[in-house]
Amino acid sequence: MARSSTSSSSEVDEDISPNINVKFETDEAKFSLQPHLFEPTIIKKGSSSSSDSESQADEEGSNSSADESRLDNLEWCKCGHCQMMDRSDECVCCQEIPEMLSLNEEVTIIKKIKDPLTCITDNPAFTSVCLDMFVLRTAWYQYRQEYDNPFEGPDNQRNRHIAYRQLARFGWGVLGRHVRVALPSCAVSCIRAHFPPPGPEDDHVYVGFKPASDEDD
């Protein structure tokens, strides 16, 4: 399957793909929870601190290799709708994200859908929140009112930008100013397909996900 970008000389898309940057509503929200942040470390008897460090380094190296392997195949996709992305941290399926699974389960119950939803893009709420032109237009007006320097650009680029924000709000609620989440590849690909850039897609370069640390450097 083709990658989402191919030519370095092509137009660069400045829509902030899964780059979500939203204000905190309270001071308490400034500190986001991280997995296993407060769990105690188990140290086996007879093990030295150096061996622990080596084991941790080996584990981190293994995880890094596993992440990079996602750029070579689509084995990580469980929903069947993902596409190859340019960065390993963008290569994530909706079935790997608890927030997306919760949204599918919630809508299945509320809408009394008989069969379980296997992809967030099959979720009727995703269609309404992220793909409906009138919903996106309304969200854009609110965005312009909230920010002094709102994102500007062509209609297709602006719609993608707002659709990404809509999905992040829909799934994660309010995120911090420097808290970014990588949206599932299937959803990003679906949004790009609904609001494509003008001209051949192969001639277009999407910016994609950029962690906050990339901009801080």
UniProtKB/TrEMBL annotation:
Residues 118-210 form the P2X purinoreceptor 7 intracellular domain. Residues 1-10 have a biased composition (Low complexity). Residues 1-20, 42-67 are annotated as: Disordered. InterPro entries: P2RX7_C. Pfam families: P2RX7_C. PANTHER family: P2X PURINORECEPTOR 7 INTRACELLULAR DOMAIN-CONTAINING PROTEIN, ZGC:195170. This is P2X purinoreceptor 7 intracellular domain-containing protein.
